[in-house]
Amino acid sequence: MITISAFRWVPDFAQGQVRDLRARWALEEAGLPYRTRLLEQGDQDKPDYRALQPFGQVPILEEDGLVLFESGAIVLHIGERSETLLPKDKVARARATQWLIAALNSIEPFLMNVALIDIFYANEEWAKLRRPGAVEFAQKRLSALSRSLGDKPYLDGDRFTAGDLMMTTVLRILKDTDIVTSDRRLAAYIERCTARPAFRRAFDAQIGDFRQAA
Ligand SMILES: N[C@@H](CCC(=O)N[C@@H](CS)C(=O)NCC(=O)O)C(=O)O
């Protein structure tokens, strides 16, 4: 059976955000059962885990001797077994992959710039000076994303793919601000994607693990 690594507990601000959610959501969309390998604080720095994930992060996926790190690689790997995530049609599949990478490469770094300031450095003088510029840049990318989404329900049209899964988890990074949701199209898009039963199951499973640990 597939095993996904996750933290046994994280502070409130990170609950429902930790990146194993991406793997769990993909597995739920694919209808594949999984179990979790829950890391205690410090486990991620131990040599046995670093041998599997060089950066000491979650998630990793383990199955039959295969070990994969990076949530993008994991979602694409799971997508191989799910037409919901990666359509069979070659062109549609390439575009789903394109959107997944756009989420990770063209959107996430700029939202993380803002999130890191808010979470870790909010009271630092330099952060107060830096934040408006970071928000402005993030908003430029978000406006472009919103224009590209247009009136379509999903990034590539009428059907949800792995690209939407990844984009939604990335957009949720700023869920405690209105930087994303002040755009009505993006707000509705997040609502649409997170209303999927597979998202709810994945989210509840992550939160459920934290509750058990509390
Ligand atoms: N690029 C990685 C990032 C993974 C990541 O940032 N994981 C966080 C939890 S959401 C983590 O393990 N942080 C602990 C650390 O970086 O030491 C991926 O997408 O898998």
TrEMBL record:
Q: Which residues form the GST C-terminal domain?
A: 89-214
UniProt key word Zinc = no
- Is Transferase given among the entry's keywords? yes
Q: Which Pfam families match?
A: GST_C (PF00043), GST_N (PF02798)
Q: Which UniProt keywords apply?
A: Transferase
Q: Which family does it belong to?
A: Belongs to the GST superfamily.
User: Under what name is this protein listed?
Assistant: Glutathione S-transferase family protein
Organism of origin is Vineibacter terrae
